[in-house]
Every structure is written in C-alpha cells, then in structure tokens.
Amino acid sequence: MQGLVGGAPAKALVHYEHYRSEENNAAKPAVDSSVLEGKTYALDATDGKLQIHGDGGKAVSREESDALRKLHTDLGKDDPVVTTIGDAPLTVGQPLSMRKELLRALLTTESGELKSGRIWLDEVRTEAGREVAVFKWTADTHSQGDNGLEITWHMSGSAVVALAPAVTLSTSLTGSLDVSGETMQRGARVTMAGAGTIKDETTVSITEP
Amino acid sequence: MAAVFSAAGFGSCKGGKEQAAPAVSAAPAASTVPTARTVRLEQRAARVGEKRHATRTSSMTLGVEFWQESEKLGTNDSSRKETFDRTL
Question: How much is the pTM?
C-alpha cells in the first residue's frame, strides 16, 4: 500500500500469486485464462481513474488491463460494506435495513433488482486477536435479460467485519437461481425454463506495516 | 418454553412433598439476564505500508431449457468460475 485517497488505499503494487478465470457457454468461445498469475502491477487510482503499469515498466496487455479493471473497482474507495452500514450502534440480533446499496456492497456480481431481504448482526467474536462483527443476510432479487430471460436469485450469506479499524475481512454467499421467460424464434414463441447456482467466498487478511 | 411447562407441572402436583419446596421462578433474576452486546464500526484510515492478502473463489452455473408446445428444442448450459490469491 503506497498511497491513500481520504482513508482508502488508492495506490499500490499488487501481486497475483494465483489467478484463473474460466467461462463455458455453448453460444460463446470458452475462456480459460490465468493471464495475471505470477505477475505484479502498479495500480494508481488517486485521481479517480485506475492507472495500470507493469512491474518494472513491462507492457500490460488489453486482456490483463480488462481483468484488473474488473478486479480493482474498489481501489481509492472506502470499504463499501463498512460505509453502507455506517457507525451507528449495533446490537447483536438487531436487524438492519437491507437496501440496494448494502446488497451491492455484499455482492461481487450483478444480480438484479432487490425484491426482499434481511440483514442482521448475528454475533460479535474475536478472530485472530481482532473483535469482529458477523453479519448474516438473505435476499431475493430479480433480473431480466435482453433476450427475455428472467432470473430470480435466492441468496444468503455472511460478512465478517473488524470493528476497529472497521474493515471487511470476509464475505460469503450461496444462492440458487430460477430461470423463466419467453422469446421468439423464427416467429414462434419459445418458453425458457431452468435453474442455476451461485457461490462466492472472499477473505482478506491485513498485515500492519 | 420448557421452563414454563416445568413450572406448570410442578404447581399442579398438589399434596406431594414437592409442594413444600420453595417456588422456582422460570425466569432468571434480572441481574443475571445477559445483556445484548452493542458495538459500532470505527472507521479509520488505512495505513501506508500495510499489506492486504486476499483470496476469492466464485462460481456460477446456469442451465436453460427451450420449449415450444411441449417439445424441448434444446438446452444452453453455462458456467463461470474465478479464483485468485493476491497481495496488495
């Protein structure tokens, strides 16, 4: 960490010990990329726009740049979970208001419009010498694609947030997807039906200088 | 709830030796009731020089069937997976 905007990390060297991205879809070419693995990049978002440089002046390919821009949207910004929850007193068992900003902070992927949801402070415990708040949540959302595909997302998850200084240490979510919709093919109505799954686990550990 | 049933059964046992026993309250004394823990998130600036090690595993699968008048036209299965381990 080399620089801050406000209190948020904004300038840093990042090294990817491991990176792999896979996509399989019959309608598109398969993706299996480890383009960032083993590489180090200098990132700078102090002026609000992410600048990327290869370590030691190495060139950065378009594929690397695109992947890094998706992975570092939070650079130069305050912790979204902490900011959205705020600094009001929280009591164990107390429900908080689940709103779209908070759901967006908890998710790492777009999942449509929030229909209903709950979030509450489940417990306060000590992890690795830090006091942490464990939030648990559930949410149902709905998204609609251009091709008439409608997806209802049923998700639940948790977020572990260190109390002082407040920082999100881990998030997890699991969910099931219900697919429905109608589209037209060669002038005839076609009905779509299906299902899916979503899973995400992210952890962060911080070493003081 | 179990404590309430227990206390009710105790009181209905008339004439037995137990009746002479002192009444036992189902509720603990006010001083022993655990108070709900209240905390707040304390936002502070990150520190230049600190290191953040992050890992992530995410996956998504989707299977869609296409139907026309009770006839299955086909399916489209897709999956996406991303994993990383990085130090910033």
Answer: 0.83
